[in-house]
Amino acid sequence: MRKQSIFILLITLFTSTVFAQVDSLIFKNGDYIIGEAKTMDRGVLTFETDYSDNDFKIEWDGIKEIYTATYFLITLSDGSRYNGHINSSDNGTITISTDEGKQIEAKQSDIVMLNDVDQGFWSQLYFSFDVGLDLTKANNFKQVSARSNIGYIDKRWKLNATYNTLFARQDEIEDIKRTDGGIGYNYLLPKDWYPLVSLDFLSNTEQNIQLRTTGKLGMGKYIIHTNYTYWGFSLGANYNDENFSIDSIPDRKSWEGFIGTELNLFNIGDLSLLTKIFAYPGITEPGRWRSDFNFDAKYEMPFDNDFYIKLGVTLNYDNQPAEPGKETDYVFHTGFGWSL
Questions:
Q1: Over the chain, what is the mean pLDDT?
Q2: Does residue 129 sit in the same domain as residue 114?
Q3: Are residues 202 and 317 in the same domain?
Q4: Most buried residue among 89, 161, 175, 225 by CB atoms closer than 10 A?
């Protein structure tokens, strides 16, 4: 039965290549599929076929063999990146045929990301947006929150931007507003090191911050980079420029250090978890400490994993806030979203 399946696969591949380039997969149970591999990230391969309107989402560790004509940006768990094709070898490994004419052998589990370079800009772009709404009759309470993320990854660099907002209103109480976001750039070096540059902003009524703008410059490294977990650290310097909503509070400008860690767990069924923690010890304001904490839990919907339910928590702490601002400000967000 095994030989028969491979024979049929080879015949189909031969006849198909007369008309178009194709990729093929053989699963561990002996089944196979022919079409086009588009991307693989976080242990899930997106695969397109002519006979289905929707792309298939396939667990990477459920694939026994893969043969591609598609030209990929390939990322390995040690941080190495190549442009080329991948094909299974007789010894059970994956052969990467690079555009420089090299043949690189790798374990299938060491391949942590594939991006279809043939599809150009759109194949390397990712995006998500989710929104939450709360209404109660008591005090005519209304609250709207939204989170968004957009990014682009290339062979040697990554660009990511976020924008999050919350607005709450109820009778006889001042409106609550909170907005934060930013844009960050990482240049990807060998061994999963990366220099980073980012510009972030925050505005909230709880701490009377009209606008806090921060600029980071530092260095980071992924300690773990697999199809199930990303875990990394970063450190560097941060410039903090704060303007306040109360005119009597003077503006604050200071230099800080920063140290942070990010843990991303995925492939837990339909669940993924993301945690980020950053601490900012004061340099020009000795004794001042600030910290940012973010946690997101995302559950992909069974009917279509482009749609999801998200639970998120954001917490900001400042041990020397401007009076009469509070030391802490936090947001608890639940919403329904869509990702690309």
A1: 85
A2: no
A3: yes
A4: 225
